[in-house]
């Protein structure tokens, strides 16, 4: 069953065209001219129930406009959408009972009252029974460690504390679908990790469908198996994260540290016949670039046991670099012979 279905969804806005000079400003008072700007251009996708999907794109790509249509805030110009079996902008009162929304830069909590009072007000908004509210609140407060924050005014919370409270506010009515728009923006690495673990647990235990928009691709790597990539209002990639890495990654770098001097020529002779690129600054360390079509284990098998190895690091293709390269090319379809990514910084695995 699909939690979200979108077909040929389009949203255009009329933007006033300002004419130059005093005469132009005078004419604008009486006869305004408009340009039509398409923010979302006939996109289609489906998200099955229980999936965590990353929805990414540069600023102005159309992410927030899509989320606002999916949550019923905006009415599409054309196309069809269904969220949890509802058309959001037509059945808003019933629809909102089944979704939760967190906007990282906007709060749904009341600024000057205690956190628990905000939760009580939201209970009434969502028409949650007192018994269900207490059970759900106890579960969320314990999981996100909010016991000491419930009686504090929201304005006295740190950003990380507030975001944890925002998550509770969005989940009090136990929605089946959750939209997260930049939920970890501005947070330190510890709080980000806590929120990611919480979201994974919620998805696993309750089967909650999550659509996540973020500029932090570590959120995507930690949470999402699928990515929808948007550019200039159009979907340029919809598929698995690993498939994206395999399609755009150029290979891996293996870094060796040796206990005793090992010549570069010796390493090259041990791996002769494999299309590898060896380099070394001295006899105690070396790097080898391994194309994707070659298994790392095949290379290690030629070196381990012959050299005095003290440490090995495998540097994987970095998702940030992959996405940057895709946007620079304007397409997720990799051209033959095109260098996809620069190996600037990578995810390091110790062996």
| Tally of DSSP β-strands | 14
User: Shape from CA axes?
Assistant: globular
Per DSSP, the total helix count is 12
* CATH T-level fold name of the largest domain: Rossmann fold
Helix content: 25-40%
Uncertain spans: 335-351
Widest sheet: strand order? Answer: 5-6-7-3-8-9
- In angstroms, what separates the terminal alpha carbons? 41 Å
| SS class | alpha/beta
Largest sheet: 6 strands, mixed
Order of helices and strands: EHEEHEHEHHHEHEHEEHEHEEHEHE
Structure description:
- InterPro entries: AAA+_ATPase, ABC_transporter-like_ATP-bd, ABC_transporter_ATP-binding, P-loop_NTPase.
- Pfam families: ABC_tran.
- Keywords: ATP-binding, Nucleotide-binding, Transport.
- One of its GO terms (molecular function) is ATP binding.
- With 351 residues, the protein is an alpha/beta fold.
- The chain folds into 2 domains: 2-245, 3-Layer(aba) Sandwich (Rossmann fold); 250-350, Alpha-Beta Plaits, CATH 3.30.70.
- It is built from 12 helices and 14 strands.
- It has helices at 21-30, 63-70, 92-95, 115-125, 130-144, 159-171, 189-206, 217-223, 241-248, 264-270, 296-303, 319-329, and strands at 2-17, 33-48, 52-57, 78-83, 99-103, 177-181, 209-213, 226-231, 234-240, 252-258, 277-282, 285-290, 309-316, 347-350.
- Strand 8 and strand 9 (234-240) form a beta hairpin.
- The protein is globular and about 75 Å long.
- The model is unreliable at 335-351 (pLDDT under 50).
């Amino acid at each position: 069953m699909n939690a979200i279905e979108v077909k040929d969804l389009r949203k255009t806005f009329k933007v006033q065209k300002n004419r130059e000079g005093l005469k132009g400003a005078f004419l604008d008072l009486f006869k305004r001219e408009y340009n039509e700007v398409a923010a979302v251009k006939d996109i289609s996708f489906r998200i099955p129930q229980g999936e965590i999907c990353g929805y990414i794109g540069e600023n102005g790509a159309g992410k927030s406009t899509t989320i606002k249509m999916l949550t019923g805030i905006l009415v599409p110009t054309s196309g069809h959408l269904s969220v949890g079996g509802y058309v959001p902008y037509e059945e808003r009162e019933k629809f909102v009972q089944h979704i939760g929304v967190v906007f990282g830069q906007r709060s749904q909590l009341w600024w000057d009252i205690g956190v628990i009072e905000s939760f009580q007000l939201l209970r009434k908004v969502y028409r949650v029974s007192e018994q269900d509210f207490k059970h759900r609140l106890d579960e969320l407060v314990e999981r996100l460690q909010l016991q000491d924050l419930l009686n504090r005014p929201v304005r006295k919370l740190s950003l990380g504390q507030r975001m944890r409270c925002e998550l509770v506010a969005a989940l009090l009515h136990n929605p089946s679908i959750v939209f997260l728009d930049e939920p970890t923006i501005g947070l330190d690495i510890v709080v980000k990790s806590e929120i990611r673990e919480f979201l994974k647990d919620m998805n696993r235990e309750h089967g909650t469908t999550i659509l996540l928009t973020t500029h932090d691709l570590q959120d995507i790597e930690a949470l999402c198996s699928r990515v929808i990539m948007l550019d200039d209002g159009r979907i340029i990639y919809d598929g698995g994260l690993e498939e994206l890495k395999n399609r755009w990654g150029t290979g891996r770098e293996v870094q060796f540290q040796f206990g005793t001097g090992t010549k570069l020529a010796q390493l090259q002779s041990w791996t002769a016949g494999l299309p590898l690129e060896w380099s070394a600054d001295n006899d105690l360390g070396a790097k080898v670039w391994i194309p994707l079509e070659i298994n790392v284990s095949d290379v290690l098998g030629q070196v381990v046991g012959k050299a005095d190895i003290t440490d090995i690091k495998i540097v994987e293709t970095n998702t940030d670099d992959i996405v940057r390269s895709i946007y620079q090319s304007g397409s997720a379809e990799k051209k033959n012979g095109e260098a996809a990514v620069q190996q600037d910084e990578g995810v390091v695995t110790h062996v």
